[in-house]
Design a protein that fits this description.
Layout: E1 2-6, E2 10-17, E3 29-36, H1 38-48, E4 53-60, H2 64-74, E5 78-83, E6 88-95, E7 100-105, H3 113-126, E8 134-138, H4 149-159, E9 163-167, H5 170-178, E10 183-187, H6 188-199, H7 203-212, E11 217-221, E12 227-231, E13 235-239, H8 251-264, H9 269-283, H10 294-301, E14 305-308
Parallel strand pairs: 1-4, 1-8, 2-6, 4-5, 8-9, 9-10, 10-11
Antiparallel strand pairs: 2-3, 6-7, 11-12, 12-13, 13-14
Helix pairs in contact: 1-8, 4-5, 8-9, 9-10
């Protein structure tokens, strides 16, 4: 069993137009409406893999019922922590002639201390039922939320014997790292920011420090470019396939799903890495974030190149 958490979800609307003209009315075509947020995207990909999971999220206000209806229609198992504020709506506009995407993300609601307490009360109950093997903590924090939120969650989940994958940025990433999750997925920009702003270390020193803190796996992504992976035994350089398409939202979340799924199935290290990267690339071929096709994953695995590095 895997759980995902979406603290700042959104109603994701994807539309397209032939060419964006700032001075004219742009006629668009609606492609998809989905429950968005990194945790939901990861759960959607896990569903495609046939891996049992539950998506936990804050939902409230005008779009709450729409979001729950979408989750039910997709068959995404979920638990909603109700909040008073309005869940946000995000718009993704694809320009067909260039295959470029414009992303318009709105600001989410503030979460009260009482609503956060409701989340922790729920988490206390799951450890007494069917304890998850992995909990994926990903995405931004809601407005005005304590930047140490992920750190608090990691400390609690670790005390319950649950393994954690962390995928966030900025101050929440810094405080999350200090709590030593099992897996950290970080992009190149976030890595350099953490090194320069928080840890005052070179990237090599930073990675060594994280492994010495008890973090078991580190994956560093860089958009469509090479990915680096580190654990206490191995280091790998991974070259993803050159997959064309505009739908990049959810690719990192599909990588997260592939990682924890492969870990549950005890894949060998190199197969685990190829599988997770292929999941991320398969996402580029689909309009709904995380709704990957396993046939594409199998094809793409053969095009993932991997080699050991020092």
């Amino acid at each position: 069993m895997i759980y995902t958490l979406t603290l700042n979800p959104a109603l994701d609307i994807t539309i397209s137009t032939s060419k964006i003209d700032k001075d004219q009315v742009n006629k668009t075509t609606l492609h998809s409406v989905s429950a968005g947020g990194k945790g939901f995207n990861t759960s959607r990909a896990l569903n495609c893999m046939g891996t049992e999971n539950i998506a936990v999220a804050f939902l409230g206000g005008f779009f709450k019922q729409n979001m729950e209806n979408l989750l039910n229609e997709e068959g995404l198992k979920h638990y909603v922590v109700p909040v008073a504020g309005n869940t946000r709506a995000n718009i993704k506009l694809v320009e067909e002639t260039t295959e470029k995407m414009v992303v318009l993300n709105s600001e989410g609601p503030s979460i009260t201390h009482q609503e956060i307490d409701c989340l922790f009360n729920y988490l206390k109950k799951i450890s007494k039922r069917k304890r998850p093997e992995y909990f994926v903590l990903s995405g931004s924090l809601p407005k005005d939320t304590d930047v140490k939120m992920y750190g608090h969650l990691i400390n609690f989940l670790k005390s319950e014997g649950i393994k954690i994958l962390l995928d966030t940025e900025g101050e929440p990433l810094y405080h999350g790292i200090l709590a030593s999750p099992d897996i950290v997925k970080i992009n190149q920009h976030e890595l350099l920011e953490a090194c320069n702003k928080h840890f005052k270390q070179s990237p090599d020193e930073f990675i060594s420090d994280l492994l010495s803190r008890g973090i078991k796996m580190i994956m560093i992504t860089n958009g469509p470019h090479e990915i680096k992976y580190y654990d206490i035994f191995y280091s790998y350089l991974i070259t993803p396939p050159d997959t064309k398409g505009p739908y990049k939202t959810g690719s990192g979340d599909s990588v997260n799903a592939g990682l924890v799924c492969a870990l549950l199935k005890n894949y060998p290290i190199e197969e685990m890495l190829k599988y997770s990267i292929a999941c991320g690339n398969a996402n580029i071929l689909t309009e709904t974030p995380g709704k990957i096709e396993m046939e594409n994953v199998c094809k793409l695995m053969g095009n993932v190149k991997i080699k050991k590095i020092l």
